[in-house]
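Summary of Year 1 activities. Much of the first year was spent building the evaluation harness for sequence design. The harness presents a backbone, in tokenized form, and records the residue chosen at every position. We chose the following record to illustrate the format because it has been used consistently in internal testing since the harness was completed.
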């Protein structure tokens, strides 16, 4: 892995792909990977692993995915054609933003209703609410971070990952280039703002150590979720933030640096995942499959026309700025699917690699095999 950090300046037309151009390039890839007549989403390679307890299904699978003997494959369950849409609730991980475009696009296009789902989207008052409401049975589907999910799973193993919203960690260290910081090692002797979440310090230490620096020489201060404000004011020289959010905001102001987790030691894994209660997935796998397939259609349409898809998010939400949302979507487009065979794919090897890295970094101590808390069968059935 290269140690050269991302050091990006103010976006310029000659240096940045527009949404339409980037979307066209991705659309070619989607088209090349799609099986004829199977679905608007890219076709999947057979799953390499299967869950120990899940029993997912698909309405019209192109191929059967291998399955564990303890659970039937997607092709062994016949899902009836959708009847009148049944209301289901999805709780987001945070306020609506560009990363949720595939969902809002599918909602606007009627893909969920076509699949028999009258989807209601709710936003949490805090990031911890999603887990709490899901555990209490107040919603059918939820989105949360990998770390929050696994931390909860250790205490309440009644939930399971069944799809991924994107395929890359979003955590990073951000700041302005004028500070003279060009690599994580340069953070020695500097003040870095952290949110106060324990994993922030572990991530900061991991990034600095991977670049050959001494984490004990890096000062830190808790600033909450105000990375941009504190970097701009000069209160801190760098801050923990999301490269697709705070990173984009800083880049729009002046030349900035972004040190992404997966560029400095962390494996590639999905930051945000879809999850549900085991009871729901086992009792109604067809609805879960329909949700995955409809969301994949929203993604495919987004790739074909990013600007139109972004507009569906803006039309259904409030308080989002067009230019900032467009810039966020532009950097997210390549990681929604990444190198996965299909959108939403749950890579069991990536989850295992995450657990090893998280334990070494002091973020999470968990030794469960991924099949204990995740299934790749729903996306394998696409």
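For this record, the design step produced the sequence shown next.
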């Amino acid at each position: 892995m290269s140690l050269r950090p991302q050091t990006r300046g103010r976006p310029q037309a000659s240096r940045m792909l527009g949404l339409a151009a980037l979307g066209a390039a991705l659309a070619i890839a989607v088209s090349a990977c799609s099986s004829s007549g199977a679905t608007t989403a890219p076709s999947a390679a057979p799953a390499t692993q299967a869950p120990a307890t899940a029993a997912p299904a698909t309405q019209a699978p192109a191929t059967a995915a291998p399955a564990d003997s303890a659970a039937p494959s997607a092709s062994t369950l016949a899902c009836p054609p959708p009847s009148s849409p049944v209301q289901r609730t999805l709780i987001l991980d945070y306020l609506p933003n560009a990363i949720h475009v595939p969902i809002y696009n599918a909602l606007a296009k009627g893909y969920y209703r076509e699949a028999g789902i009258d989807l209601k989207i709710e936003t949490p008052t805090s990031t911890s609410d999603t887990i709490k409401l899901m555990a209490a049975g107040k919603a059918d589907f939820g989105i949360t971070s990998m770390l929050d999910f696994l931390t909860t799973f250790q205490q309440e193993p009644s939930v399971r990952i069944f799809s991924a919203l994107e395929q890359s960690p979003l955590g990073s260290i951000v700041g302005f280039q004028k500070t003279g910081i060009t690599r994580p090692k340069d953070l020695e002797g500097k003040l870095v703002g952290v949110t106060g979440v324990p994993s922030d310090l572990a991530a900061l230490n991991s990034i600095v150590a991977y670049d050959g620096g001494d984490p004990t020489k890096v000062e830190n201060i808790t600033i909450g979720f105000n990375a941009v404000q504190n970097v701009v004011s000069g209160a801190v020289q760098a801050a923990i933030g999301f490269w697709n959010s705070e990173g984009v905001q800083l880049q729009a102001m002046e030349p900035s640096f972004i040190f992404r987790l997966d560029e400095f030691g962390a494996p590639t894994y999905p930051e945000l995942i879809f999850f549900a209660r085991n009871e729901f997935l086992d009792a109604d796998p067809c609805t879960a499959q329909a949700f995955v397939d409809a969301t994949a259609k929203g993604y495919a349409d987004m790739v074909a026309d990013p600007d139109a898809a972004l507009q569906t998010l803006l039309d259904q939400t409030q308080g989002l700025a067009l230019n900032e949302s467009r810039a966020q979507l532009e950097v997210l487009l390549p990681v929604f699917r990444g190198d996965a065979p299909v959108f939403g794919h749950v890579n069991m090897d990536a989850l295992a690699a995450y657990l090893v890295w998280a334990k070494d970094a002091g973020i999470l101590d968990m030794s469960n095999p991924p099949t204990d808390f995740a299934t790749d069968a729903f996306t394998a059935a696409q």
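The chain has two domains: 19-65+82-168+269-380, 170-263. Quantitative recovery figures across the full test set are reported in Table 2.
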